[in-house]
């Protein structure tokens, strides 16, 4: 009867190993999924930060451009082609919701006139 007992123990050991392996595989799958999700989150975060900084940079560039145009118009005086262009009213916002260069320059002129 000893061989039967050994065989029984062996079957139990194999069954336990199979069960352990399945648990480990399930855990590994869960970890792989979590890792993938975290990588996606990280990529999205990096992309949103890049978007934030590029829109901030774009805003700075627009403000600088308006300042340059405004100063040029001041230097050229009332007969400036810039002054004439700014005299023509434009719709306040471009399609993407940003203020136009002309609107920015008008705002600077208004601020100058009141200070």
TL;DR of this structure?
This protein is an all-alpha fold.
Task: Please give a handful of descriptors for the protein shown.
single chain, 115 residues, mainly alpha, 3 helices
Q: Fraction of residues in helices?
A: over 70%
pLDDT < 50 runs, ≥5 residues? none
Q: On the 0-100 scale, what is the average pLDDT?
A: 87
Shape: rod-shaped
Kindly name the structural category: mainly alpha
Total discrete domains = 1
Q: What amount of the residues lies in strands?
A: under 5%
Give me the oligomer status.
single chain
Largest sheet: none
What is the number of strand segments? 0
Whole-angstrom Rg? 35 Å
Distance between the termini: 107 Å
Q: What is the N-to-C order of secondary-structure elements (H for helix, E for strand)? A: HHH
Query: Helix tally?
Result: 3
Structure in words:
- With 115 residues, the chain is mainly alpha-helical.
- It has one domain (2-114).
- Helices cover 83% and strands 0% of the residues.
- It contains three helices and no strands.
- Helix 1 crosses helix 3.
- It is rod-shaped and about 115 Å long.
- The termini are far apart.
- 3% of the residues are buried.
Write the layout of secondary structure elements.
Elements: H1 2-76, H2 81-87, H3 101-114
Helix pairs in contact: 1-3
